């Protein structure tokens, strides 16, 4: 904003009030607001005085206008935001802002109200009040003042407000013009600032808003629509006020001009109702203008009550009552005056208005705490009843007031009134209408009655009919019964249509007739002439005819015969008589006259002039100057001298007769007016008598009805008394009725046992009896209840340990306390049940706290709230203070699950199907969706209606994840089994074919060798598969064990290369190796590390096409040994780089499915590397771009390798062997292999046979299968070892189980070696050598 803007006077001053949540609304408002609107903005927020505010900095980010903290005396400037400092209050006076400290010690402050009130007083219709988000009601009272001053009140819409307390309170006042969002408020302010309104300045000047002839067609259409819908004629209202109200609605509705607005009123909508509401002045309050009510209370009302006759009713009329506050205020004053005098309240207050909605609100008599701000606490306590929806007018007050529709302009007034109040209504009427209404008020008042007007209103022509009681307060007393003439009569009502061709009202007929006559005369006449009407009154003087008129001293007259030149008077009089009789023009011969000392001849001509109105005859008298000496023709109607003398005599008599007649007419008019007034009073009295007669008939009927009702009530009371007697006799409740002196009035039989009472004790004091209750303060408690009227409830015991619920209530009769009622209810069973319930609740609470599940209770299925246990809140990750509702619960459900859950809930509520469902909900802490299991059961009232539902709630995310893992594992297992079947069938097929070749006998030696090589190679393949299966089992159970030592990674890599060298050559791949010259020593298991390297190289071979490259490198990096295998093969998709390490994972890119494997190689690699505290990673740029696997292992802190010296052991030759195997083929083939090596083999088919052979043969070694029938291998070994004579026998376990636990079991059974099937024939010699080297001893075994 430029510096010059601050000197501009604002076109409007906008007061903005906000509280909680108001910052967002303010930011949204100023984001959309034009910084050069020409308006000034005053922002008031509820800020704590204990903290510095940075509101100016925050708002500066959202507007280009300058944001300034208000200082005392600061002028209001356009295009500037004036911000209220914390702890202050601000008002505006003379375009300056005045600050004041907020009063200390006051808990409530209303700074927005204070600002709005000052805006209304100092700016008036240029004030705009905006109420934004906030709690409480600040701003609603000030909004009323702005509306009353003609300003605009705008409220933020409840939907867009974070807190709707302040907007809702303002809306409830009924004075809000617009309810908009902050952005829409900004647009509305733009229109106000840019004057995008109807042409109110161009169309309205001093006469532009005349409501009859010169009214614009659009305005006439508006009046017609209002009159058509509401029956109210606004032609009697002041034009400037009507224009302002209409223009205000035009502005607020946002249309471009008045004509468009008038057209919009013809459409369906609420705008015409809003316009009607704006046209009517409805701002009122209790005891508004306190000085006026003080004067009424101190002087007027006491004097009026003094003048009432016995049994006479005090009658009052409140005209324009709006929402009823003023009527009730007068009712309070009258009720207090009558109560003070101790007389019956014979009060009738007629409260009238034309707005039926306001009358309906007044009839309800419900007001807020703010609306009762001017009512003292004592009056509020006496005359109002506080309820949940507000303060209700007490019935005592309500029955005094009769609210009725009434139009003060059109309808007959109420009569015989002691008091009329009509404040600030007449100022909106035109002066004739004001006089009409005041005349009606005068007629309705008794002589001596009081009239109270508004501060800006006066009596006008009726001032002489009233005596001022208090001129300042505008309180007057009626002096006499008959008002002055000239003020009575009825007002003509204009038929409002929207056409321009309208008939003018009667009060302008004379003027319009004169104008038409002028138009004709100016065309025809140039000589001197006089224009007179049928009463001979001069209407106009033409052509210099004024010199022939003579006015005498005294009261002036307009009669042409009185003012015409004396020498012409008789001639003119006779001419007029002839003209009236004959209806033809009359000419008088020239008459000698002396005009201005010059003698001349004047010829008169009188003729009737037609102006178009048959009822009004106009006469034109022409005066022609002639030469008196010349001979002139004499008209045939020329008069003689005798006739002229006779005419003069007749004229004098006629004048005397006319004077007498005029006097008589005036007296008759006065008498007629008096008779008319009396007739009106008689008519009104007759109407009231008829009304009273009807009321008497109605009262008579009511008396008959009341009498019948009383008789029926007596019967009912008799029956009720019998019922009470039976109730007291048969009830199980112990009851005592006591009067105010604690004397017995009545008691039940059961309480008689506790107090030792008999029927004759009625009337005795209760404290004269002993009782069996263990309560020494009972009597004192009864006295306290009678004194304070506060009931007492407590549990007591009697001497036999019976429990009772003691309740003492005040005994009320006609609203006063006249004793007490004491009841005792036996609650012994209830006490037992309560104790049991308490224990049950404790158990339940303990169970709930110990359970992992949450508990929920939907106590009313028709409402939103759901009670939840603290555990359920914890499961949801929500704070316990956050209430869980049905709507909020639905918001937390995963969108994909919501319909499923709601269908299940609806099915349970409607058909009773089980509600047991798992679904996902948003977790508050992590903001992720977790799985929950909810169960519930509904409590039904009858067969159908569900009233309550409760159940449990459990987090099952881990279980669901585990189940998903299991499902994936099962899928991989199935894939693995299918793959295993494939992998086993391939070598078995090759072995089968090779066996067939060998069995054919037709094959030569080379084919035989080739077949044997196939069998050997395929058997090795199956052996590897079985080893992998064993490793899978170890991985699954986490039982891979390492035999660690100092290992040089170079030796590991060299050994692995030697294992895969043949596969590399067969695959036609280029292979390169990079290894350091120094040793890279790690702490590891050499076999497992070799297995890792072999698996990585095997994978590279399988997935690299012929002609590809494989590179293996070994190097040291920062204390780690790094093995890297890189290939140019098929590559790996980026999203599979982690999944390839999963168990049973198989790539579809294997080039040779015959060597596809089972998908456990990389899983073994990761497991072994991690057991060595290392890490394995895979990299690839995508399919077809090769892959790189990197293994990182920590180097040993001690790089020295252990050197084992040779140990000389004497060998024992193995000659005899016992072979125990239940599978014949396996046994025979192994026996054959042993026999080919020169051993003597003894075969056993089961454990018992094998044990017998060992004992019989005493072999050097026994090879025993573990899974033997009848007696397993473990039992055979234990029995052999239990016999010390067989200590030298070497035992070898042969089994398909190769896990570590199996090896441990074998060792504990006494075996010396553990061999895993299938046995490799090539390693048989090594095994026999190891057996020979074993030294049998009682304390030494080697597995």
TrEMBL record:
Q: Which catalytic residues are annotated?
A: 19, 46, 138
Q: What is its main location?
A: membrane
Q: Where in the cell is it found?
A: Cell membrane; Membrane raft
Q: Where is the Histidine kinase domain?
A: 979-1197
Q: Does the keyword Methyltransferase apply?
A: yes
What positions belong to coiled-coil segments? none
4-aspartylphosphate PTM sites in chain numbering: 1265
Q: Which UniProt keywords apply?
A: ATP-binding, Cell membrane, Chemotaxis, Hydrolase, Kinase, Membrane, Methyltransferase, Nucleotide-binding, Phosphoprotein, S-adenosyl-L-methionine, Transferase, Two-component regulatory system
What's its membrane topology?
Multi-pass membrane protein
Q: Name one Pfam family in it.
A: Response_reg
**UniProt-listed PROSITE patterns:** CHEB (PS50122), CHER (PS50123), HIS_KIN (PS50109), PAC (PS50113), PAS (PS50112), RESPONSE_REGULATORY (PS50110)
User: Which parts of the sequence are annotated with region: Disordered?
Assistant: 671-691
Enzyme Commission number(s) from the entry:
2.7.13.3
Q: Which residues form the CheB-type methylesterase domain?
A: 7-196
Mind telling me which GO cellular component terms the entry cites?
cytoplasm; membrane raft; plasma membrane
- The residue ranges of the CheR-type methyltransferase domain are 225-479
Q: Name one GO molecular function term.
A: phosphorelay response regulator activity
Tell me which residues make up the PAC domain: 915-968
The reaction(s) annotated as catalysed by this protein in its Swiss-Prot or TrEMBL entry are: ATP + protein L-histidine = ADP + protein N-phospho-L-histidine; L-glutamyl-[protein] + S-adenosyl-L-methionine = [protein]-L-glutamate 5-O-methyl ester + S-adenosyl-L-homocysteine
Gene3D superfamilies, alphabetically? 1.10.287.130, 3.40.50.2300, Chemotaxis receptor methyltransferase CheR, N-terminal domain, Histidine kinase-like ATPase, C-terminal domain, Methylesterase CheB, C-terminal domain, PAS domain, Vaccinia Virus protein VP39
Under the heading PANTHER family, the entry gives: CHEMOTAXIS PROTEIN METHYLTRANSFERASE, PROTEIN-GLUTAMATE O-METHYLTRANSFERASE
| Protein's UniProt name | Sensor protein EvgS
Q: Which gene encodes it?
A: evgS
